[in-house]
Every structure is written in C-alpha cells, then in structure tokens.
Specification:
Number of strands: 9
Strand content: 25-35%
Number of helices: 3
Largest sheet: 4 strands, antiparallel
Order of helices and strands: HHHEEEEEEEEE
Mean pLDDT: 76
Helix content: 10-25%
Radius of gyration: 24 Å
Number of domains: 1
Shape: extended
Structural class: alpha+beta
C-alpha cells in the first residue's frame, strides 16, 4: 500500500512538472500588442474604397439606414465625422442584425424584423447573406429550414437572437 502511495505521489509530481515545463512566456512586445493586432483579415474592397481598414467596422444599428453600413472612425479627436459607405446590395434585403466575419474578410449577416416583416417575408427571413470580401456584393449565402416546417409559427435563432413570429 505504501508503494502505491509513492507511485501516486510521483505521478502527481511528474504531472505538475510537465505543466511548468511547457509554460510559454510572452515577450514584452507580444503583451503590448494584445488587442491591437487585427484578429481577422479585412475585406479587400475596403481599401479600394479609400477607407482605412484599421478604423472601419460594419454597422447595422439604427433605423436611418436599412441593411449594412460600413463606417470609418475619425482619424483624430478633432475630426468628428464618420465616413460612410453602403453598397447598393446591402440595403435590398431590409434591416440586418449582427454581422460576423471570417478569416478571409467575408462578412455574414441575417435579416431582422424592425416594426414588421415587410422587407423580409417568411420565405426569406431564414436566409444568411454574405458580403464578398473582394467585390463587396451581398448575396444569399445559405438558408435555414423552411418556415413551412413549423406549424402556425416561425421561430428562428441566429447569433444569440431568438425571434418568434405567429400568424
């Protein structure tokens, strides 16, 4: 029994040493760049528009603009104006909810009802749209299950948003 305790103790010590031995330390430069390095590649079309990709973001907030808007933050605190761009295809499918991007600069979004579903019918409300990183054109990427699979209601969940439409 005493030998078993010794083996367990030895195993525990070796396990702890393996964690310490594999510890990788960050350099001061790596630490100072946390949060400053872009985690994904920006879309190619952004620089072609004359926008600074390091100060741009997609926006779907507000009711002044339908769809997706590309905003560039001011370069200095003295400049308060945001530079705006909206490709014609970005407003064709009504209001959009959250935007996410992939490692290649493509952006993905989905429609969201604002006040009503006039811009997005029950046939199109389940569509995920893609903004191409090279051209900036938005088109249907994929669709989730058809609304006819549901009985007198249509529930859908995208990126943490749950909606339920009844008729």
């Amino acid at each position: 029994m005493n030998q078993m305790k010794s083996l367990n103790y030895l195993f525990f010590l070796l396990s702890m040493l393996s964690f310490v031995a594999c510890e990788e330390k960050m350099t001061e430069e790596e630490i100072s760049n946390i949060g400053r390095q872009p985690c994904r590649k920006p879309a190619e079309f952004i620089s072609q528009l004359g926008f600074d990709a390091s100060r741009t973001a997609y926006s779907t907030e507000g009711t002044q603009y339908k769809g997706v808007l590309l905003l560039q933050a001011p370069a200095t605190s003295a400049d308060t104006a945001f530079k705006k761009y909206q490709h014609p295809t970005w407003s064709q499918h009504g209001y959009m909810a959250s935007v996410t991007t992939d490692d290649f600069g493509n952006a993905y979004c989905f429609p969201i009802p604002v006040v009503n579903t006039m811009d997005n019918t029950l046939k199109t409300i389940h569509t995920v749209y893609k903004i191409d990183s090279k051209t900036g054109v938005m088109q249907a990427f994929t669709s989730l299950p058809d609304h006819r699979l549901f009985r007198r209601c249509c529930s859908f969940w995208y990126a943490g948003h749950l909606f339920r439409l009844s008729w």
